[in-house]
Design brief:
- This protein is 69% helix and 0% strand.
- 33% of the residues are buried.
- It has 220 residues and is mainly alpha-helical.
- The protein is globular and about 55 Å long.
- This is ACP phosphodiesterase.
């Protein structure tokens, strides 16, 4: 699941460090894909650091339930099939695109149907002390936490996730993610065709997309 979908499950928490933990594995991958941390079983003497660890573990659990769900398997496969002709000639693997597309569509639906408030999510991140974050990263084995700090500041300032309300930005986000692997993944024609697929698929999910959140919520 993407950032806002992870946030959905703990949208009512008052602990900003736990909220950060629920999205931190993905934030770290975006900051530097070579970063690999495994703090799952660690215990710190600072409760704030432990809250980040608890949120991290919640992230892993939600992803486990999501990626093994019938919902994910069904819709990522369907999107793969629909997007394959849309990106003919692109180096991007359709199964990868289908996987990411369903996650971004879900984030868009959470915003556009009023299930979450993006400003509340960012308010949590803004409340976290960078020294506590750096302590967590160092404790988890990261040699240079400052690498993450620069990215984290930019992520908060851009308020990028708020743009997911616009379906055009969903296509753009897909492109940006693919650009981490492929230098020039899509032509303008590819992007136009992808946007049409995403728009139509989103319309078909509006009435049923909450089922996956309900399913995972029952398991948590």
């Amino acid at each position: 699941m993407n950032f806002l979908s992870h946030y959905y499950f703990d949208r009512d928490t008052t602990n900003c460090y736990f909220t950060l933990g629920t999205v931190l594995p993905d934030l770290l991958k975006n900051a530097d894909k070579t970063i690999v941390l495994h703090p799952e079983k660690l215990t710190h003497n600072d409760d704030r650091v432990n809250s980040i660890i608890d949120g991290w573990n919640k992230h892993l659990l939600v992803d486990k339930y999501f990626h093994t769900s019938e919902f994910f398997l069904k819709h990522s496969h369907a999107l793969k099939n629909l997007l394959t002709p849309a990106i003919a000639g692109s180096p991007v693997k359709p199964f990868f695109l289908g996987h990411i597309a369903i996650e971004l569509i879900l984030d868009n639906l959470l915003i556009t149907t009023g299930k979450i408030e993006v400003d509340d999510f960012y308010a949590h991140l803004d409340s976290c002390d960078i020294e506590v974050i750096n302590e967590f990263l160092a404790f988890a084995g990261m040699k240079n936490p400052a690498i993450f700090g620069k990215f984290y500041d930019s992520f908060k300032q851009s308020r990028y996730l708020a743009t997911y309300v616009n379906l055009g930005q969903v296509t753009y986000a897909l492109k940006r993610i693919c650009m981490r692997v492929w230098r020039d993944p899509f032509t303008p024609q590819h992007e136009e065709a992808m946007s049409e697929v995403i728009l139509n698929y989103r319309l078909g999910l509006i009435d049923s997309f909450m089922s996956i959140y309900e399913e995972i919520g029952e398991k948590l």
